[in-house]
């Protein structure tokens, strides 16, 4: 079963940007006034290609066979058994064969999110037997304890580590990573830049 993790904030803001672009494109087409409209359309296209590359495309994907890290311009596949170590700071860093490192673009943790997670963890620890707090259902309480003091990136990093250890225990082969270029994102940027140049020169 495939599981995909990405930055919720970036994903939502990217779709907000696409809605904004759609409205502006409609307005520029309806009120077309020559070269200025062409340049504006080309600039919107270039910015949209950039938004796709850095906000919509990046994702961390769990598959049965391994970890897929989709960064703006490259996609890396790592078999679970090939993962040697996982560290989490503001981003998740996955170390694999020959001291190579894969830095995942998403999910990331900001300083604000980490501080909020630490406060949440401290609040969980302070709960006493006679506190007059509302009682959570067992499932919600287990989820709260699992996430106490952790950011989303911390939790995803733990899941990667656990899957890698499980694959090694099963004796799976630690095959090398496979990396490929993201031709869709690169193609979009090339086309968008070409449109901007053509609109300026025309």
From TrEMBL:
Organism: [Actinomadura] parvosata subsp. kistnae
Secretion signal, residue range per the UniProt entry: none
The keyword Acetylation is assigned to this record: no
InterPro entries according to UniProt: CFP-6_PH
Record-annotated membrane-spanning stretches: 9-30, 36-55, 181-201
Assigned keywords, A-Z: Membrane, Transmembrane, Transmembrane helix
Name of this chain's protein: Low molecular weight protein antigen 6 PH domain-containing protein
Domain Low molecular weight protein antigen 6 PH: 57-106
Keyword check for Membrane: yes
Region (Disordered): 115-136
